Amino acid sequence: MIMSRGTFVKHIIGSSEFGDMFKMQLGSNQMYLSTGLVTSDLASDLFTGIGLPAIEIKDDYVKEQNGKNVQVYADGHITLLPQDKVGYMRYHTPYEQTDPVPGMTYTPTGDGDMLVAANRDHNGRYLEYTAEWIPQIADPTLITTFDLTKLTK
């Protein structure tokens, strides 16, 4: 069960069902914990103890082409994955390799996973680098996302 830290704080330990009833037993003493003291590891142990998936906090960001940073896992959403590795990046032969542009010279580089196209005319030399990889998801029907913003209203 993957979520952002904001989702964990607001929807897991911030919920009345969880936060008000969490207590710690130290020897013969019991104390109720403030939700600020409940870590994702403690909550994950509780969840796995009752047969739910473990909690994993991910606050990863990606940069869009316009330069804006965006969270990979949005606040208010929980993602369930069947396993840690859900797929791999598969090499795809560039279209230029099977249908070359006239006048261009193509050279595979490295392990054959990149194609360099060269052209020269009276204005100079031109190089183009092409590589294509496609995400190959093993079984996308097993990936589930819960939108908690719609469930809690």
Layout of secondary structure:
Elements: E1 2-3, H1 5-13, H2 16-19, E2 23-26, E3 29-32, H3 40-49, E4 56-57, E5 61-63, E6 69-71, E7 77-80, E8 87-91, H4 95-98, E9 105-109, E10 114-121, E11 124-130, E12 133-137, E13 144-147, H5 148-151
Parallel strand pairs: 1-4
Antiparallel strand pairs: 2-3, 5-6, 7-13, 8-12, 9-10, 10-11
Jot down its keywords.
alpha+beta, two-stranded parallel ribbon, 20% helix, three-stranded antiparallel sheet, single chain, 153 residues
Brief summary of the model shown:
By secondary structure, this protein is an alpha+beta fold. The protein has helices at about 5-15, 15-20, 40-50, 95-100, 150; strands at about 1-5, 25, 30, 55, 60-65, 70, 75-80, 85-90, 105-110, 115-120, 125-130, 135, 145.
Give a verbal description of the structure.
The strands form six sheets. The chain has a three-stranded antiparallel beta sheet, with no helix packed on it. It has a two-stranded parallel sheet with strand order 1-4. β9 (105-109) and β10 form a beta hairpin. The mean pLDDT is 82. The protein is α+β, with helices and mostly antiparallel strands and 153 residues long. 20% of the residues lie in helices and 37% in strands. The chain is elongated and about 85 Å long. The relative contact order is 0.16.
Total beta strand runs: 13
Question: Stretches where pLDDT falls below 50 for ≥5 residues?
Answer: none
Rg of Cα set: 25 Å
Q: pLDDT average, as an integer?
A: 82
Biggest sheet, open or closed, and with what strands and sense?
3 strands, antiparallel
Q: Helix/strand/pairing class, anyone? A: alpha+beta
Shape: elongated
Instruction: List the strand order in the largest sheet.
Output: 9-10-11
In DSSP terms (H or I, runs of 4 or more residues), the helix count works out at 5
Determine the strand fraction and express it as a percent band: 35-45%
Order of helices and strands: EHHEEHEEEEEHEEEEEH
Oligomer: single chain
In whole angstroms, the N-to-C terminal distance is 21 Å
Indicate the percent of residues in helices: 10-25%
